[in-house]
Amino acid sequence: LDLDTAKQELEEFIPHVRQMSDSSVRKMAGRDLVRFKQFKKQGIAIKFGRFSQKENNQIRKNVEEFLSITGIDNAEKLLFTSRYPDEKETINRLKAQHLFCEKLAEGIPRAWRLIYYRARKMFDPNNYKGRYTNEEKEKLKKYHALHGNDWKKISEMMSRSNLSVAMKYSEIKSPINYGPWSREETQKLMHAVEEVIMKRTELEDANSLSSSEKSRRNLLIDREKLFQKLPWTEIEAKVGTRYWRQCKQKWTSILTNKMTKGQQLYRGTKGLQAKINLIKRLYEMKVEDANEVNWEELSNIIGDVPRAYVQAKFYKLKVSYVPFWQKKTFSEIVDYLFEEKLPELEEKL
Questions:
Q1: Is residue 100 predicted with pLDDT exceeding 90?
Q2: How far apart are CA 144 and CA 129, in angstroms?
Q3: What is the pTM of this model?
Q4: pLDDT digit string, tens, across residues 219-275
């Protein structure tokens, strides 16, 4: 396919394809377009966002089958071939011979590149090494001063994953405050969020609204834009004294307070009732994975709150009440809460 035709055909499945680089579009046309069309025939939509447990299991199955076909020892050699220079040529030959790209993506309605990144995260033995020591943090600062944002090189030097070192550096690159937010920090956060939302809205409206409508839109922002898909690393840089996850949590707290007019929704009798309602509704949904849950719909169970608030409350429920929750699937966690914890909460209420 020529580039324009590839973009046109891919746009049906990837709405933002025209914002991608030409080389990325060419790779996607080669690796994904035929797969996307096959999924369409089966009535399966192309997915984005977090991977479900079912998709993670499919990746594991695909990797295990490919290893058994090729005789490659382990998933690290398959997905991090450059770490094994002596075997690199043989591994790459086997990957080409047995169609590694096609096999890895089998049965998963997503772009190949995203499946590959997910597999690398799942099978990287350097990805789950616990907290950074003070010595490691100092090393990370030193390596970044020498190599900048070359996370691949730094990750090899520290025996940590690319993602891990990049995120940790985001936390330690400036004096981060872990105490209560000051009034000045809160104002900085609110101004930072306002800036990115207004910038995004202006870009969206540039070609679609008249000047009178634009001036009116300054006062009217769709509520969803206040808490969905905000660029938190950009906001972190504007705030300066907090890392991105703190900024996100604080912003959710501010929004919740505004939307509920300061009511304490999750305290006392109201809190018990909210927990009961949340567990019941999740159980009624009968979904297998957290990614299938409509968290906006659930927000009405607790009150008029952002979805992140509801997700945080569910996280607290499972951590507080479900033993060995890390080893359970989403549906097993919900079943346990419904069968074991719900009767206690109702009795307490």
A1: yes
A2: 20
A3: 0.55
A4: 455 665 676 678 888 888 888 888 788 888 888 888 877 766 655 555 678 788 888
Contacts with 180 (C-beta within 8 Å, 6 or more apart), sequence order: none
Question: What is the third-level CATH fold of 134-171?
Answer: Arc Repressor Mutant, subunit A (1.10.10)
Helix then strand then coil, % of the chain, to nearest 5: 70, 0, 30
| Residue 227 Cα distances to 21, 49, 107, 141, 186, angstroms | 28, 16, 32, 32, 16
C-alpha distances in Å from residue 215, one per residue of 21, 171, 203, 289, 334: 34, 38, 14, 43, 47
Long-range contacts (CB closer than 8 Å, 24 or more residues apart) made by 37-41: 39/109, 40/12, 40/13
Cα–Cα distance between 15 and 125 in angstroms, integer? 34
pLDDT band at 72 (very low <50, low <70, confident <90, very high): very high
CB distance 214 to 205 below 8 Å: yes
For the CA atoms of 337, 341, 346, 349, the dihedral, rounded to the nearest 10 degrees, stands at -110
Does residue 166 surpass a pLDDT of 60?
A: yes
The two structure tokens encoding residue 88: 């690199």
HSE-up of residue 1 (Cα within 13 Å, Cβ side): 19
196 band by pLDDT with thresholds 50, 70 and 90: confident
pLDDT for 51-71, tens place per residue?
A: 888 898 999 999 999 999 999
Q: Which residue has the tokens 């307490």?
A: 348
CB 177 within 8 A of CB 242: yes
Inter-residue contact 107 to 58 (CB < 8 Å):
yes
Of 153-157, 284-288, 334-338, the one with minimum mean pLDDT is: 284-288
- The segment(s) of the chain belonging to CATH 1.10.10 are 134-171
Contact 75, 67 (CB under 8 A): yes
**What is each CA distance from 140 to 44, 57, 83, 234, in whole angstroms?**
43, 33, 20, 21
What is residue 94's predicted lDDT score, i.e. its pLDDT? 94
Mean pLDDT of the chain: 82
